[in-house]
Amino acid sequence: MDGSSYYIPAVAMGIALAFKAPALIRSWRDPLMRSVCVLLALAGLVFAFAAPPTIAAVNHVTGIPNVSAPLVYCLLSAFSASCLVLIVNWRGGPPDVTRRISRRWITGYGAVSVALVLLFVLGDAPVEHLRDLDTYYANTPFIREMIILYLVSLTVAGVAMNVMCWRWALQVHGWLRTGLLIIAFGFMFNIPYSATKFIAVVARWNGGDLDYLSTYVAPVLASVGAQVSAVGFCLPLACQRIGDSWSTWSTYRRLGPLWRELRSVSAHRIRTVQIAWWSPAELQVTQRESDIHDGMLNLYPYFDPRVRSRAHEAALAAGSDPAQAQAEADAAMVTAAVRAKESDPEGRVINSAEPTADPSTTGPRDLVRMSIALRQSPVVAAAREQAPTRSESDFHEQPH
Fold first, then answer.
1. How many CB atoms lie within 10 A of CB 32?
2. How far is Cα 269 from Cα 184, in angstroms, rounded to an integer?
3. Closest-CA residue to 232 (of 265, 187, 275)
4. I need a surface site. Which of 49, 211, 273, 291 has the fewest CB within 10 A?
5. Radius of gyration over every alpha carbon of the chain, rounded to an integer in angstroms
6. Annotated region Disordered: where (predicted)?
7. C-alpha closest to that of 240 among 286, 180, 176
8. What confidence score (pLDDT) does residue 2 get?
């Protein structure tokens, strides 16, 4: 594997981290967000510092032969801990339990990192080896133990990730389960990676030469496993984001009929601040709901409870459930009120209106159901065709 095989994934991780940075700043106290960003940062660092050109550069800059070895091993240990902590925070649970488990993993792999550095300092590795350090120094005191320690720690992380992901996957469904299974599959590569390294090292202990397993086979396994796991981490989050956006835009679209019905009486036509078409979907929905509420407030003097009552009875008789019947009744009252207002251009009803109760006392309305009813309900269509004009005397006679 040449340098580009390491640097391309490192750059990809850096770009992903850059996109996450604004969300991290806004939600710094969110453990899950912190875990995601730490994992992306460490994954990028592992790929960048494990590249042979970077290994040579670090050794040259520090003047210490093979100092990149404990650096890369410590980064791998930190990355393993970050993956475990991310799964713990992602799964959730009682905050105290989550923090306690996270601290245990961080402490454990922190101790491994310290031990790796100490073993390297105690050992003697004067000849620089960029690709085959594990096998070349397999019989060197302390360096040998450093190699075994980092391989064991990677194996433990791989097994732990598989256990946690499989247990959680059995309890969830959808994209989350798919992502967890992909993560587990990716971390399964830790086991053959460590196995090939161990086989090559043990062969050296016994006077054999299987260095190619450590030098050429193991790096490919590690790279494939890391990239598969990255897909598993990103897939549920990306699909959830896409699903949320789709749901939001769907709500925006379904509110369209009610929004258009109220355009003639809503203040949004003269709004000084316009929402740009590229604004976030949530803001677009909020603005559309605000326009609808403004229009309904302007229509309130024209609302006729008798229209609503008749429509409600008709909807129930047609087989609608109570929630749907309420939405159809509200939609029928709204469409009748729009026509009543259109037939009262001088505003006589409003001018002669007595103080009425706050419209909010009528209870919340399901705007989406109302909007769909405007387009599909025969009860609403009948109310629209039969909408009478309310007179001033009608207004005074109606309860509010």
1. 17
2. 54
3. 187
4. 273
5. 33
6. 338-400
7. 176
8. 61
Q: How far apart are CA 218 and CA 47, in angstroms?
A: 14
Nearest alpha carbon to residue 260 among 327, 338, 333, 377: 338
Which residue, 372, 365, 374, 379, is CA-closest to 323? 365
The 10s digit of each residue's pLDDT in 168-224 is 888 888 888 888 888 888 888 888 988 999 999 999 999 888 988 988 898 888 878
Q: Would the pLDDT of 114 be above 70?
A: yes
CB of 338 closer than 8 Å to CB of 264:
yes
Task: Look up tokens 């016994």; give the residue.
Answer: 206
**What ranges in 343-397 are assigned the alpha helix state H?**
348-351, 367-376, 378-386, 392-397
- Name the pTM for this structure: 0.66
16-50 per-position pLDDT tens digit: 788 777 777 777 777 777 888 888 888 889 889 98
Tokens, residue 65: 């032969």
- All domains of the chain in start order, with CATH: 3-251 (1.20.1070), 259-397 (no CATH)
pLDDT at 7 over 60: yes
Structure tokens at 37: 């960003």
311-324: b (≥16 Cβ within 10 Å) or e:
bbebbbeeebeeeb
Task: Report how far residue 304's alpha carbon sits from residue 299's, in angstroms, rounded to the nearest whole number.
Answer: 10
b/e 221-246 (16+ beta carbons within 10 angstroms → b): bbbebbbbbbebbebbbeeeeeeeee
Q: Whole-number mean pLDDT of the chain?
A: 82
Q: Under DSSP, is residue 355 helix (H, G, I), strand (E, B) or coil?
A: coil
Length of the chain, in residues: 400
As a whole number, mean pLDDT of residues 323-330 equals 90
User: What angle (nearest 5°) sits at the alpha carbon of residue 15, between those of residues 11 and 19?
Assistant: 170
Amino acid type, 127? V
Residue 159 one-letter amino acid: V
Using CA atoms, how far apart are residues 284 and 49, in angstroms rounded to an integer? 44
Mean pLDDT, rounded, for 81-109: 89
The pLDDT value recorded for residue 397 is 45
Residue located via tokens 């949530």? 282
The two structure tokens encoding residue 351: 């001018």
CA 4 to CA 12: how far, in whole Å? 12
Per DSSP, 214 falls in state I
Check whether 390 has a pLDDT greater than 80: no
Please, what is the Cα angle at 39 between 176 and 111, to 5 degrees?
120
Q: Are 399 and 352 in contact (CB under 8 A)?
A: no
